[in-house]
């Protein structure tokens, strides 16, 4: 493989990792199942799962925990 192909492969792997990492981090911060949202990300798309996590927001437990910290 030449340098261009290696660079392209590294970029694709990096973008794939980021597209998996963002929804997983969002799910963890909102008190939702990281594994479940990872599966949804793989079956649908990262953008759909990000939008769904934004719409759903945190779980009740996570929201109460944040309120108690303030």
Automatic annotation (TrEMBL):
Keywords noted in UniProt: Membrane, Transmembrane, Transmembrane helix
Protein name, as recorded: Uncharacterized protein
Highest taxon in the source lineage: Bacteria
Transmembrane segments: 37-60
């Amino acid at each position: 493989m030449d340098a261009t192909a290696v660079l392209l492969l590294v970029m694709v792997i990096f973008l794939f990792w980021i597209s998996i990492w963002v929804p997983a981090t969002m799910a963890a911060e909102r008190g939702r199942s990281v594994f479940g949202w990872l599966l949804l990300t793989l079956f649908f798309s990262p953008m759909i799962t990000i939008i769904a996590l934004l719409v759903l927001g945190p779980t009740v437990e996570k929201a109460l925990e944040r309120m108690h910290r303030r």
